[in-house]
Write a structure and sequence with these properties.
155 residues, mainly beta, 1 helix, 6% helix, 48% strand
Length: 155
């Protein structure tokens, strides 16, 4: 299925609203995305038009977003764009929603301190150890001859 994926960089415009529903957690907030351009006449950066999106997050992303985001935070949101048209009280309304896949603070405009959330372990699955991402000190292509295994005899 073809979907329109979008990456929007902007600011959180409303406090996230969290709901714990029967089919899982859900959160929503408004995102303000303002274009900026260099005005040659004034020799300054100028704000252009502001687009507003309603961002929807589900499950663990909803829980983490509602705990991490406040109004004014600079964020990057990636997700599926959904544009809807509606008729309310005789007027046409158009709204743009983003069904978020990932949300994060924009580190080009500030710093953040990341904390992992505890994962819910399912019955029967042992906890997985954290992988060792360290690069070995020596990166030789082959072990020295005294450490190489002997070839197996073929019968």
């Amino acid at each position: 299925m073809n979907e329109t994926m979008i990456c929007a960089v902007g600011n959180v415009a409303t406090q996230p609203v969290f709901r714990d529903l029967a089919n899982g957690a859900s959160a929503r907030f408004r995102l303000a995305v303002t274009a900026r351009y260099w005005d040659r006449e004034k020799s300054t950066w100028t704000d252009g038009h502001t687009n507003f999106f309603t961002v929807w997050a589900n499950r663990q992303l909803a829980t983490n977003a509602s705990a991490s985001l406040t109004v004014g935070d600079p964020v990057v949101v990636q997700g599926r764009l959904k544009v809807r048209t509606d008729v309310r009280e005789g007027q046409n309304w158009t709204s743009a929603d983003i069904d978020a896949v990932a949300i994060g603070h924009d580190l080009a405009r500030g710093t953040a301190a990341f904390r992992r959330t505890g994962r819910v372990e399912t019955a029967g699955s042992p906890p997985q150890p954290e992988p060792n991402w360290e690069t070995p000190a020596t990166e030789s292509a082959a072990p020295p001859p005294e450490q190489r295994p002997e070839p197996a005899a073929v019968a």
